[in-house]
Design a protein that fits this description.
alpha/beta, Rossmann fold, seven-stranded parallel β-sheet, 8 helices, globular
Length: 276
C-alpha cells in the first residue's frame, strides 16, 4: 500500500513509519518541513493532494511540547481550531482524493470521567474531562461521520505509549529512581509504540471502521523499576505498589479480533536497555 503519514517525527509516528516500511508499504511523510518525497502539511493550512494514496494515518497533534493533557497552554481556542478543524479538513480531503482508509490516532482520554475501575469498552459514550480528550473525541465523531463506500475511517484509542526514542516518556522517572530521589507509587496502562503501529496497519489492512481500544500492560511503577534495578544494579528500592483496582483498563477485544497481539512483558523487557 501507499500510506500517507502525519506526525512521522513523533514517538508513535516513528514506529509507524518503521513498521510500515518493514512490511513493504510505501510511506509519504506529511510534515511542516518536507524533504525529498515528503508533502508539506500544517494543521492550520489547506491539506495537500493525497491522490494515489491507499490509506492515511494521522498522528500529528499540535500541543505544548511534552504535554497532551494541558497541551493547549494559554491558547485553548487555537488548540481546538488547529487540531479539530485541521484534522477534519485533512480527512475530508483524503476522502475526496480517493484514499480508501484512514486511521486517527486518538486516546483513552476520550473516556475521561468514568469512575476508577470501570472496564472501558468502545460502546461507552465518551466523557472527556480535559480539552485534549474533548478535541480528540470531536475529531473521532467527525471522522466516523465521513464513512462511505470506498472510505473506511477508524480511530485508535491508544493508552500511554512507551518505547525507545529521544526524550522517551520514562526518562525523568528513570533518572529520579537511579539518583535515589523519591518516586511516587503509580500504576497505569501502557503499550509499546511498535504495537500501536501494528494496530494502525491492521486497521487499514482490514478497512475497519469505528473506534478501537489499544492497550497492553497494566504496569505498576514498582515492577517497572524493579526491572531497571535488575538491569543496572541500582541499590535503591522501587516504590511501593499502587492500587491496580483503581485503574480503568481498556478492553481490546475489537482490535484482537483483527489478529492484533501486543508484545506484553517480553517486549517491555526487550525495550528497557535502549531506554536506559
Amino acid at each position: 500500500m501507499r500510506i500517507a503519514l502525519t506526525g512521522a517525527s513523533g514517538l508513535v509516528g516513528r514506529f509507524i513509519e518503521t513498521e510500515a516500511r518493514a512490511a513493504g508499504h510505501e510511506v509519504t511523510r506529511l510534515t511542516r518541513r518536507p524533504g525529498p518525497g515528503d508533502l508539506a502539511f500544517d494543521l492550520s493550512a489547506p491539506p495537500p493532494d493525497l491522490s494515489g494514496h491507499d490509506a492515511l494515518i494521522h498522528c500529528a497533534f499540535d500541543h505544548v511540547p511534552g504535554r497532551y493533557r494541558g497541551g493547549e497552554g494559554d491558547d485553548p481556542d487555537g488548540f481546538a481550531l488547529r487540531n479539530r478543524d485541521g484534522s477534519l479538513r485533512l480527512f475530508r480531503a483524503a476522502r475526496a482524493c480517493g484514499v480508501g482508509a484512514a486511521v486517527f490516532l486518538s486516546t483513552r482520554a476520550v473516556y475521561g470521567a468514568y469512575p476508577p475501575g470501570t472496564p472501558l469498552t468502545e460502546d461507552l459514550a465518551p466523557r472527556p474531562d480535559t480539552l485534549y480528550g474533548r478535541v480528540k473525541a470531536e475529531v473521532e465523531a467527525g471522522l466516523h461521520a465521513l464513512a462511505a463506500p470506498g472510505f473506511a475511517p477508524a480511530s485508535l484509542r491508544a493508552t500511554g505509549v512507551y518505547g525507545p526514542g529521544p526524550d522517551h516518556k520514562w526518562q525523568g522517572l528513570f533518572a529520579a529512581y537511579l539518583a535515589g530521589r523519591p518516586v511516587a507509587a503509580r500504576v497505569a496502562t501502557e503499550v509499546h509504540g511498535a504495537d500501536v503501529a501494528a494496530a494502525c496497519l491492521a486497521l487499514i489492512g482490514a478497512r475497519a471502521t469505528g473506534a478501537f481500544n489499544c492497550s497492553d500492560l497494566l504496569l505498576d511503577q514498582h515492577d517497572l523499576l524493579a526491572e531497571v534495578q535488575r538491569l543496572t544494579g541500582c541499590p535503591h528500592d522501587p516504590p511501593p505498589r499502587a492500587d491496580a483496582g483503581a485503574v480503568s483498563a481498556m478492553d481490546c477485544t475489537r482490535l484482537q479480533d483483527l489478529g492484533w497481539r501486543p508484545g506484553g512483558w517480553a517486549r517491555l523487557r526487550a525495550a528497557l536497555p535502549a531506554m536506559l
